Amino acid sequence: MEILTVITAVLGMIGAIAAVIGIKQIVQDPRRIAAYAYTVGGIGAALMSAGLILHLILDEPLLLVIMFVTAVLVLLSGNLLGYPLLVGFLLWAGITNLRRESRSLANMLSLLAGIGLLLLPTTLSFFDTSEPRNDLAYQLQYGIHLGLVLLVTYVAFCFAAFTVASIAYRLRKNRRGSAAVIVLGAGLLNGNVPPLLAGRLKRGVTAQRKDIGDPILITSGGKGDDEPRSEGAAMREYVIEQGVDPERVIAEEQSTTTEENLRFSQRLMSDPKAPVTVVTSSYHVFRAALLTRALGLRAHVVGASTVWYYLPGAFIREFIAVMRDHIRLHMLAVVGIIVLTIAFTSWITPLAVPPEGAF
Prior knowledge:
The structure is a single chain. The chain is of the alpha/beta class and 359 residues long. It folds into 3 domains: 2-75; 81-170 and 326-351, no CATH class; 177-310, 3-Layer(aba) Sandwich (Rossmann fold), CATH 3.40.50. The chain is 64% helix and 7% strand. It is built from 12 helices and 5 strands. Strands 3-2-1-4-5 form a 5-stranded parallel sheet.
């Protein structure tokens, strides 16, 4: 009993330390998505350990049940938040695509994915539980279903972490002056600035005027294959028309990706290590913030408003892009899910079937 209490206390301390580290990292830099996992996992482990220790000491089963239920709710909080959010965003994006764009298969993928996730819990009814089974067909059916559920659970948790981290980052205020305001480019329309890009530029002009650091404005974007001029040049012309001093605007005209936007704009600064403000669209803020962190930029990213119906689909695309940026980590998680599924299907499921003649 004493050994069990000590082991439980050690695990609880590890959980508490993980939670404290996670909270500290979130406060210091809300762009650390993994910190949210540390926090949730640590709090859940600490609650479970505390409940078991109190039960061992006080012999109070009710207290143990309360602590365990609370811990489970904490550990599942990501899925309780992420699953309905993911389903809702997919359905919203799919319906918006059908209403405002062509009814192609590509535009229907979001809607089909949302319907599939919505119906996933009902698929448990397909299993015949009237009598125990241990045949190969049942194991394959059970294994595929379990693997799919675990995969969806993992993606839902990642989506919840991405959403919470995005909101937490946007709530953080920038209290320091910037040496430059970098406006990220988007596509041009017949060589001119379209509404979405105009929104970014107006937000950038406002950020420049309000910044206590008297920053320069860098309009960043190269020339696409179907564009008559670079985005950076068109953007510079636009902000000058908005009243910005031409001497305080520099066009970056070589970049073709968001990462190049940031790298090439940094090279145009007199002090590349100075703090900057990066301006993009609202749905793109967090991914741009992750890129600034990866590049070692002292940056604060702000977003221009986007039409409401465009947000769900754009937000999901940003989530997919962030998942792709960390593909090795997520492939490792998928391998873990496959191993866990095989283990359950091959070893655990047969153990649940009583031997013949047991009853």
